[in-house]
Amino acid sequence: MGIHDVGDKPSGEPWRRFLKRLLDDLYALEKMLEDGLVETGNRRIGAEQELFLVDAGGRPQPAAMEVLRALDDPHFATELARFNLEINLDPLLFSGSALSDLERQLEEFLARLRTVAAASHADVVLAGILPSLRKSDMGLHNMTPLPRYAALDKATAAMRGEPMQYRIKGVDELSVIHDSVMLEACNASFQVHLQVSPHGFHRLYNAAQAFSAPVLAAAVNSPLLFGKRLWQETRIALFQQAVDYRHKDQALRQAPSRVSFGDGWAQGSVTNLFKQDITRFRVIVGQELDEDPFALLAAGKIPRLQALSLHNSTIWHWNRACYGINEGRATLRIENRLLPAGPTPRDEIANAAFWLGLMAWAEKDDIDFAARLEFGDAKENFMAAARNGLSAQFTWLGGDTVPAQDLVRNELLPLAREGLAAAGIDAGDADLYLDIIRQRVETGRTGARWMLQSLAGMKTAGTASERLGALSRGLVSRQASGEPVSRWQPTGISEAGGWKQHYVRVEQYMTTNLYTVHGEDTVDLVANMMDWENIRHVPVEDEKHHLVGLVSYRSLLRMLAKDRRGEGGPSLPVAEIMKTDLLTVTPETETVAAIELMRERKIGCLPVVKDGRLVGILTEHDFMVITRELICEKLRE
Predict the structure, then answer these.
(1) SS3 of residue 123 by DSSP
(2) Peptide bond before 223: cis, by omega within 30 degrees of 0?
(3) Cβ(244)–Cβ(237) below 8 Å
(4) What is the DSSP-derived secondary structure letter of residue 423?
(5) Structural domains of the chain, count
(6) How far is the C-alpha of 605 from the C-alpha of 624, rounded, in Å?
(7) Is the dihedral of CA 350, 354, 357, 363 positive or negative?
């Protein structure tokens, strides 16, 4: 959402005025297209770089507002979370050295940002999803304090009517409930813009849709969320759920999601796409507008079409049609929103070169994908690419099934090279960037593969927090080197930034792989669980995972001392021996506070509870690692 001064969805007369202005904007655009007022012929490209700010341990650093004030540059903008930022690059004519110029511009902005961010103890990471993110980072305390984000969150909550259940299944399975739009802040993309002419817009838009799958397969960079190994590009599944406004009662109506690939090929004018969105998606935010588009046209001026642009900014097609003004001329562009941030600026420009080359080839040869590929196949290809990356199988032209690696390497890279040549891009730049894609495809080493291999290589070294922090810090160091991801070596636990960074709060090292029982279960089950799993504490929870008690090894011993167990005797329920007056902590509790609590109360276990539900457990054993590190550190001194 590029407009800041927005508020809640209007009502009453202001609501009707905004709707009328929205329709006026649409009809004004139709008139501009009829009168030839939308620029044609020129091709410009641009990009938006989303990114994360992190601390010395690779954890998100909520310093965006301070950094922006220090930068004082409109190229840098806020994102949803206080640990996200966006860089808006200047548009360039799509010819000559445009690609290398775009990379040079991006590197200059990033270098300046790193310098300024360092004063706030922050560094910059380009990643589709920051590996070290935790669910506790996604609270409203980390939301950027601007009205548009509060309005978006309020609209989401009102339309859903209840907290959102997120489910994503890959190698692991993620199932979490969250009550705000903040999970969207897990995502960072590198959005590429291509200006297009009004004539034949639908053919180029359809080409963007068809090429989405192979371009994404070669660019995947987001395999982890909250430590879970999910899709090769988990952003796709997460973003679709994070801003899904549909109430559960709309399932039978097949109501569309505001984040989608679409439901059919585009036809006719670009205004048809806008009409579909106005028809299908209600206005969720608004503002008082004083612009009359027809009055401006009558005066020989180009309107900004504010209402149309605002509504369009709350619908997130993976390829989005956009209206804008450049140097006083009305323009149309396609925004490619599917590419992840990272792994390096050069990798990102290579991804852009691949897509732009294919688009230039499709325009040159006037390819009609609607006549050569079923839309359902294009959509399924896209989802397969998000799930499986270069291991995906695609249904391509003519209905043939083709491995993603073969399609990209053997067919599409040559077409992209042909398209870049037709656009007048320097041959050296075309070779440089497309060869990066070729090396990535031939080695299979995407950003996603590098993360998963690095994580597997660390095995059980350190804590889960340390391993994920090492991935984030590994991204920082490798991005600074400028080497494309296909040449990266795996990261190791030594890059985690020191053990102290990963024992600040309980959630960083608490045990989450829990063995629990219910109150009506037999005590014999608890005794065997302790024996089999070598544990000394078993939490007791109800059907909704609320903590109701705790059975300790000591309580079992006391029971045996009273000779109440007895071979062949009656089975004793857990509820009769469990402790119910429990001390608990939250995931955000500081380690020092947890240690002091356990020492003062002379207890060996602290259940970790969030919103009344058991999420982890902390025992004396968990502090043994800290003790070991402290002893080693002191001995080295």
Answers:
(1) strand
(2) no
(3) no
(4) T
(5) 2
(6) 13
(7) negative
| Residue 77 burial (CB count, 10 A) | 17
* DSSP states along 41-97: S--EEEEEEEEEEE-TTS-B---HHHHHHHH--TTEEE-SBTTEEEEEPPPEESSBT
Q: From the centroid of its chain, how far is CA 174? A: 14
Over residues 75-107, the pLDDT tens digits come to: 999 999 999 999 999 999 999 999 999 999 999
Domain final residue pick, 443, 466, 481:
443
- Does residue 328 sit within a domain? yes
Other Cβ atoms less than 10 A from the Cβ of 447: the count is: 30
264 and 379 both lie in a single domain = yes
Closest CA to 234 of 133, 334, 362, 366: 133
Considering the chain, what percentage of its residues have pLDDT values greater than 90?
Answer: 67
Q: Are 516 and 541 in contact (CB under 8 A)?
A: yes
Answer with the one of 400, 426, 443 that is the final residue of a domain: 443
Position 329 in a domain = yes
For residue 196, the 8-state DSSP code is E
**Residues 430 and 530 placed together within one structural domain of the fold:** no
**CATH number reported for the structural domain that contains residue 177 in this entry:** 3.30.590.20
Distance CA(573)–CA(321), nearest Å, equals 63
What are 490-536's pLDDT values in tens digits?
999 988 876 666 778 888 888 888 899 999 999 989 988 988 988 88
- Name the nearest CA neighbour of 307 among 25, 1, 12, 504: 25
- For residue 233, list its beta bridge partners: 222
In this structure, the answer to whether residues 52 and 182 fall within a common structural domain is: yes
What percentage of the chain exceeds 70 in pLDDT? 92
Residues 539 and 395 in one domain: no
Rounded to an integer, what distance in angstroms lies between the CA atom of residue 420 and that of residue 359?
A: 9
Length of the chain: 637
**Exposed, middle or buried by CB within 10 Å (0-12, 13-18, 19+), for 490?**
middle
| Continuous segment of H or E residues that includes residue 541 | strand 537-541
**For residue 567, pLDDT beyond 60:** no
Residues 378 and 522 in one domain: no
> Taking the model in full, what pTM does it have?
0.86
Judge whether 467 lies within some domain: no
Secondary structure of residue 192 in the 3-state scheme = strand
Element (H, E) at 606: strand 605-610
Average pLDDT over the chain, rounded to whole? 90
Q: What is the pLDDT of residues 231-273, one digit of tens each?
A: 999 999 998 887 666 555 554 455 677 888 999 999 999 999 9
Q: How many CA atoms lie within 13 A of 317 on its CB side?
A: 24
> For 206-224, what is the mean pLDDT?
98
Residue span of the structural domain in which 574 resides: 507-636
Give a yes or no: residue 621 inside a domain: yes
> What CATH number does the domain containing 585 carry?
3.10.580.10
Tell me, yes or no, whether 377 and 520 share the same domain.
no
Q: Give the pLDDT mean for 536-556.
A: 89
Instruction: Copy the structure tokens of residue 574.
Output: 């857990």
User: Which residue bears the tokens 């202001």?
Assistant: 14
Residues 89 and 169 in one domain: yes
Residues 131 and 263 in one domain: yes
Tell me which DSSP letter residue 328 carries.
Answer: T
CB 129 within 8 A of CB 238: yes
